[in-house]
Specification:
Layout lengths: L5 E4 L3 H12 L4 E4 L6 H5 L2 H20 L13 H25 L3 E3 L5 E3 L2 E3 L21 H11 L1
The structure holds flavin-adenine dinucleotide.
Length: 155
């Protein structure tokens, strides 16, 4: 049912880049993302941080500009507008990441991926202690060796 050369867990900056590059080299790729495409950077890291910091800097600029000859009218700030526009930008980037993947033939699975062996899925670190066992295999992947050699070619 599932047969991929590379199965990526996590559609953040690293996972999306690796998946896209591998697909462009001709690999059959799937990526599992349990929350939101773009990961930390797009959704709760770099992007929202920069937008909120930029917004915070206008206050000093408005204060300083009088000394440079500018006269401003009454100022006001609307937190709701800032957050709504920040959320719109993140939603736009989520779509960009999705398009980058689908345009390159990467299959997106919107679910939590787990590593499994014959005993079943192992989702918690304590349960995953023996995952290096020879019997261990990547859940979904029947071509792990091929994926590893592909990785070596990509990075
Ligand atoms: C507040 C903040 C500000 C930052 N600002 C900057 C900046 O300005 N510049 C910069 O270069 N870096 C910045 N970073 C760092 C940057 O966000 C990270 O380096 C980057 O996101 C790491 O990418 P990643 O793909 O390794 O992991 P992530 O982006 O964290 O992606 C991991 C993804 O995997 C998914 N996932 C995890 N486990 C599973 C599973 N079992 N199944 C399915 N999906 C799973 C998660 O939902 C997540 O989407 C910032 C980070 C933070 C927190």
């Amino acid at each position: 049912m599932y047969d991929f050369d590379l199965f990526t867990i996590g559609g953040g900056s690293g996972g999306v880049r690796a998946s896209r590059m591998a697909a462009q080299y001709g690999a059959r790729v799937a990526v599992a993302e349990e929350r939101y495409l773009g990961g930390t950077c797009v959704n709760v890291g770099c992007i929202p941080k920069k937008l909120l910091v930029y917004a915070s800097e206008f206050s000093d600029t408005f204060t300083d500009c009088a000394e440079f000859g500018w006269t401003l009218g009454e100022r006001s700030f609307d937190w709701g507008t800032l957050i709504a526009n920040k959320n719109d930008e993140i939603a736009r980037l989520n779509c960009v990441y999705e398009k980058v993947l689908t345009d390159n033939g990467v299959r997106i699975l919107r679910a939590r991926a787990t590593i499994a062996d014959e005993a079943g899925p192992r989702d918690r670190p304590s349960q995953a202690a023996n995952w290096r066992s020879p019997r261990t295999r990547l859940f979904f992947s029947r071509s792990f060796r091929r994926a590893r050699s592909l990785w070596a070619a990509v990075i």
